[in-house]
Amino acid sequence: TVMAYDRYVAICQPLHYGTLLGNRACAHMAAAAWASGFLNALLHTVNTFSVSLCQGNAVGQFSCEIPHILKLSCSHTDYLREAGLLVVSVCLAFGCFVFMLVSYVWIFRAVLRIPWQQGRHKAISTCLPHLAVVSLFLSSGFLAYLKPPSMSSPSLDLVVSVLYSIVPPAVNPLIYSLRNQELKDGI
């Protein structure tokens, strides 16, 4: 969301960039992103540790993800508590997604009004890495958490878990560094 806002200000309001995104604003946005991520993780972690397990504590997975821990639960209230947290998380994530979508609509409207081709290309090239990373993250997340139970198998769950948790963070620096001309020349 912060990256989308940054791209919006850089492209749609370039003369106000320094005013709107000064050091203080950037620090506040970074703190808000870190705090919201930490709070979300903390709520899910506390809820996960309060789950009463009746089928042992061995998770047959590479990592302990919430759906696999809930499968070991004896209580339906554990599911309901986690479902409530997930609904809140999804609502917040959907709000961020809508904000990013609106930002990029405004960005692409502004880009289409740029009279010269080179300027349009430069504006789009600043947005594409962010869109690529967000698309990779969202598509792998949807695949990990929204696939039907009939598609669930231990090996597929492992592949999807690794894809979701390792690939986007690993590819993120690579995608952003592809804008670096020295790196392009090296490749």
UniProtKB/TrEMBL annotation:
It is a multi-pass membrane protein. GO terms for molecular function: G protein-coupled receptor activity; olfactory receptor activity. It is found in: Cell membrane. Residues 1-176 form the G-protein coupled receptors family 1 profile domain. GO terms for cellular component: plasma membrane. Coiled coil: none annotated. The keyword Transmembrane helix applies. InterPro entries: GPCR_Rhodpsn_7TM, Olfact_rcpt, Olfactory_GPCR. It comes from the Eukaryota. This is Olfactory receptor 14A16.
